[in-house]
Fold this protein.
Amino acid sequence: MPDLLANLNPEQLAAVTLPNEPALILAGAGSGKTRVLITRIAWLIQQRFATPATVLAVTFTNKAAREMMGRLTALLPIDTRGMWIGTFHGLCNRMLRAHHRDAGLPATFQILDTADQLSAIKRLMKGLGVDDEKYPPKNLQYFINNAKEQGLRPDQVDASDTFNQKFVELYRAYEQQCQREGVVDFPELLLRCYELLVHHAPLRAHYQARFKHILVDEFQDTNKLQYAWLKLLAGPSNAIFAVGDDDQSIYAFRGANVGNMRDFEREFNVRHLIKLEQNYRSHGYILDAANQLIANNARRLGKNLRTDAGHGEPVRVYEAATDTQEAAWAVEEIRALMNQGLARGEIAVLYRSNAQSRAIEHTLVSAGIPYRVYGGLRFFERQEIKHALAYLRLIDNGNDDTAFARVVNFPTRGIGARTIEQLADAARLYNCSMAAAIPYVTGKAGSSLASFANLIAKMRVETERMSLPETVEYVVRTSGLAEFYEGEREGQDRLENLQELVNAATAFVSEEGYGLDTPARSIPLSRGASAAPEIGFSPDDAGDPATTVLDAPGLDEPAQNPDLMTPLAGFLSHASLEAGESQAQAGEDAVQLMTVHAAKGLEFTAVFITGLEEGLFPHENSAIEPEGLEEERRLMYVAITRAKERLYLSFAQSRMLHGQTRYNIRSRFFDELPQETLKWLTPKAEAGARWGGRSDNAGWGRDWFARPDRQQGRYGGSYGGYAATEGAAAALPAFANEQREADTGFRVGQQVFHTKFGEGAITALEGSGADARAQVRFKRHGEKWLALAVAKLQVVE
DNA sequence: TGGGCAGAAGTTTTT
DNA sequence: CTTCTGCCCA
C-alpha cells in the first residue's frame, strides 16, 4: 500500500486527512494545491472512507480535470470509470444526458459554444426584425448569460427600464428558440442541471446520497450558479472540500465571485480552514515582492507565502524608451539566459493584453529564437471543423437550426440568402425548425432545399450502423467538404484538419471505452451493462448507492446509467465542451509568450512581465469597475508568482497601440513592491519629480496620456502640470489652457443608458472633445467616471 | 455568389 | 495599426 502521506508538510497533511466535514483550504501560489486535492481523494479511498463512486471532484478546465484523473490513477489503481471528475459543464452535461427527459430536453440535445450562441442570437433578432444597432447581439448575449449565471429566467429578471424590457423579451424568445431546436448554451447546461435537481426530489436525493465527498478546485473562480449547484448537491449532510486562493481571483469579469469563499465559510459553518503558505516554487525575493504587493488589497482572507529557499536573485527592473526597445532588451536577456544553459521552455514573457505580443514576436523572429504564443484559434473552433461538426449535428438532431444554417449552403449548392430567408419565414410561420419547414417552400428554391434535405436523410440512413470514426469520415466525404477544400488553393491545411477530426474521433472512442465497432448513434450496450457495478473496487461496493440506484424505482429511464450517451452525442459534447489545444507553434522547446491570465497555474524558471505601465497594467478599463484595481493587483500577484528563480519587470515610456503612440508612466505597482528586492537595470526615476503629482481620484486611468502634438487620440491629453524632463516627456507642452467648452451633447442630470452598467444619471461633466468625461451615478453600479469617447452613453428619452 | 471595400473597434477567457 | 464585419456591386 503506497504511503500517500509521505513528504507532505504539516498543513498539507492536515488538509488531506481532515474528517468528512466542510473545509476550506486557502492554498497560496505554488503551495501544492493540486497535490493536496489529489492526495485527499486517494487517501479517502485508500482508507475506505470513500469509494470512487462517492467522490465528485470539479474543476474549471478540462486540462485540470485530466491532470487530476491522471495523477490519481498513478497514485492508486482505481477504476476511474465510475468517478465523477470533470468540469462544471462536463458534469452537468453528463447529468442532463442521463436525465434528459426530466430536464425537458431531447436525448440528442446539442451544445452551443459561444460562437454558435451568438449566431443563434443574430438569427433570432433578424427573424424578429430587431434593430441590431440599438440592441447589439453581443450585448444581448452578455445579458442572457449573465442572467442565467445569476440563476434567473426571463420572468425573474428585473425589467424596470425599457431597455431591459426589450432584452428580457428577447431572452424569452431566445429560450423558446433553443427549446424548439433542442440546443443548450454553456450557462444553460448549469442552470438546467441546477433546476433539474431542484425540481426532482428523487434525483436530488439520489445524487446527495451518492456524492458524500465533493471536492472543488479553484473555488475562488466559481460563480453564483456554480456555488448554488454545489450547495444543492451537498445537501444537508455532505461535505464540500473547497480549495482556492482569493488572491488569485482574476476572473471576476466573467462572473467569478470571490465572495463565494466567505459565503461558504459562513453558510457551511466551516470549522476547518487551513492555509497552505509554504511555497515550493519561488526564491525569497520573488515571494517578498508578491507578498508585499498583495498586502495592498483590502478585503483578503489573509495569507503570506514563505519559502525555505534563500533570497535568490533580486527582481530586475528595466525602463525602455519604446515598446520596440523593451522587446529588444528582453530578447537580449533571453539570449543570455539561453547561453547560460536555460531551456527556452523555462522562459516566459507575460503581458497584460494580447496586442502586446506583436513587438516581442517580431524581435524573436529576427533573432531566430523559437517561441510559442498561447491563445488563438483552437482545433474545434476552426471553420472546416465546425462545418463538419454541423453535418454530424444535423444527422443527430435535425432541428438544430444553427447547424442547419451553417451548412445548408456550404459547400455552395445554389441556396442563396433569398431562399434561406423564405425558409426562415416558413419556419417561423409554422413554428418549426428550418429543416421541417422545407416542404413549405415552393418552386426552384424549394427543390434545391429538398435535395439538401435528401442529402442529410441519406447520410442519416447510411451511417446507421457505422462506427463514430467511419461516420465522421463518411460525412467529410459525402457533404462535399473534402472536395471543396481540395479545390481551394489554401485548402491543404483544412483537409489535414478534417483528417485530424477523424483521428480525434478514433481517439475519443478508445479513450472513452466505447467498442471500436459500436455504431455511432446507438446506445452502447456493453457499456450500459458492464458499467452497472460502477465501482469494482472493494467488497463494500455492494451496498453503494451508485450501484443500487440503477434499479431504484421512481427514477426515469434510461437515465440511471450516467454513461448512457451514444458515441456521437459524446463526441459532439466533447467538441463543444473542449475546444482543444490552441495551435501548437514553433519547436517543442520554445520561449513561452502569453497573457498573465493564461499563465495562471504555470511556472517558469525565468519570467518577464512586460508593459508595466499605467493604463496597461493596471489596465485603464478596470478603473470603471469598483474593485477593478484590486483585481489588477491580483493579476500582478499571479504574474510574479509564476517565477521560480529570475523575475524581470519592464515598462516603456512610449508604446504603439491602435496605430497611435501612447506615452505612459510606469505602473503604480512598482511603488508597492519592497524596494530592497528590486535591482534597477536602468536608473530609477523618481515618479514624483519626473511626472508631477498623481491624481488619486476615481478616474485613475487618465494617468497616461497621448502625445498632444499628434492629437489624434481619443485620449488627447488636456491635463497640464506634468513636469517635462527628458526624452518623450520633453515633447509635452503645457496644455491646460486649450480646454474649450465644446458641447458634448450631454448635460448634468440627464438620464443615460450604458450597455454594461445599465441606467444612470449624469452627475458631473468635465473636459471636452476626445477627452470629455462624465460622472454617472448608475442604479446598480454606483458612481463612475466615463470617457464619453469610449463609453457610448445613450440618452434615455 | 463571391469578392472587394469601407468602417468600426480593439482587456483579460473557459466552458 | 490590424482585424473583423457587413454591405454593395458585378
